[in-house]
Amino acid sequence: MSFTICLLQTFVFVLASVAVGTANAQPAVATAYMPATDILPQNTAGFVRIPNVPEFRASWRKLHLGQLIDDPSMKDFIDAQRARATNYLESTDHKIGIRPKDLVDVVTGEISLAWIPFENDKLRPYSICIIADVRGKQAESQAAMDQIDQDLKRGGATRNDVTYRDQTIRVYSTKPKPGQLKVNQVAVAISDSRVIASDRDTVVQDLLDAISGTPKGEPLSRFSDFKTVMSQSDASLELTAEDNGKLCLEWFAHPFQMGRILREVFEVDRGNQVDILKLLEGQGFNAVRALGGKATFAGERFDVLHRGFVLATRPFKNAAVMLELINQPYEAIPDWIHNEVGSFNRINWNIENGFWASESLINEALGDEIFRDMVEGIRDDEAGPQIDLEKNFLPNLDDTIILIADNTVPADVDSERMLVAVELKNAQAIKDVIRKAMEVEPDATKIDALPGVDIWRVQRGEGEDDLEAELEALGFDDEEGAGENQKPLLDHWAIAVVDKGPGSPSAYLMFSSHPEFLIQSAKRIQAGAKDGLASLDPAKKVVEAIGDLGAKNVAMDRLARLKMSMRAKYELLRKGQLKDSDSVLSTILRRAMEDEEGGQPDPLNARKLPPIEKIEKHLTDGGAFTEETEEGWSLTGFFLRK
Question: pTM (2 decimals)?
Answer without folding.
Answer: 0.88
